[in-house]
Amino acid sequence: MKNNKILITILAVCALLSFMYGCIEPFSPPEVNSDERYLVVDGFLNVGNDTSKIELRHTQNTNESSAFFPETGAKLSVSGQTGEKYDFIETKNGMYILPPVNVSLSGKYHLSIKTRDGKEYVSDDVPVVITPAIDSISYNYDQDRDAIVIKVNTHDPKNNTRFYKWKFEETYQYRTAYYSSLEVDLIKKALVSRKEDISLCYRTVPSTNIMLGSTIKLSSDEIRQLPLNIVQINTNKFYLKYSILIKQYGLSRAGFEYWTDLAKTTQGTGSLFDPLPSQVTGNIKSTTNPKELIFGYFSASTVTTKRIFISRGLGSYPRCNPPDTVFVSDAIKFPSGLLIGYVPEKSDLVLQTTGYCADCRTQGGTTVKPSFWE
Prior knowledge:
By secondary structure, the protein is mainly beta. It has helices at 2-22, 30-33, 253-267, 328-333, 355-358; strands at 39-43, 45-46, 52-58, 69-70, 75-80, 85-87, 89-92, 95-98, 108-114, 120-123, 126-129, 134-142, 147-155, 163-175, 182-185, 190-193, 200-206, 211-214, 222-232, 241-250, 284-286, 294-296, 300-301, 303-310, 324-327, 338-343, 346-353.
């Protein structure tokens, strides 16, 4: 009798699971698989001593693996309510820049776009938001995560900002497991000393997540110890030296709501309880086709920045498999790797390894030291 009850229970659970999974059907919104190329506008008016950058490109089907589609040959300009106008210049495919200009901090401005095929777009008039300075950048080691947590501190004594957005660029110094001291001179057909040190590099990586903060529910416009970046120790970014440049932007309420909705859509999906994807279009409209979808939000603000360096010696020296031993004649005739140096007391033998193990440039960095490097 007891065994029958257990069997009935098992069958009931199986039936329930079969029903649950049998009801699941793949859902793909029409916008995801659409071949329509909607315009995407990414950028803002940098009110200060830096260049404004706006990138134009088109959406693509999520199943596509090709590079994005830039909008080239367009005419972009920013105009104020008092009649002033500033024209952007295209520097590369889909990237348009405006050198620093003096604009009224109390004025309102809008973006106008005219594409090569005659389509026209215009944004809403937006006010200039004055961004307060970054007070400090702090960090601490989180033992549970085995990571360095980098935090930002800021405040607006006038209580005018209330809405914030951040980006950052992290630059770190790293080296390879082996030092390559030899290279093949193809003209002389001989081994020569390598002139450039390719074992030590610097790599800069921009942030990708949308990072926002608000003090609207607080009595004072003050943000303290807000985590912006969590860097795992096993990345070895802190083994030599690490630097982070944080850029802070003040936002209007409408701009903050746009970026919040976009963050929920792009960063908050992944489980049953996450918000479902929605259509976030922004404040840019088509004047030639009111029904056309355009994605992006145009804003105007000053930008404040702050940089720190961190030298903690955390992580481990890079490791690679032991190098191969090859004859000098073979290394010259059939160069297939990087040469570390001669085998001790063996002038006809050299040690050879892969580019990853001896050429730091293969890991995305450059041997040129950044101008800001301490």
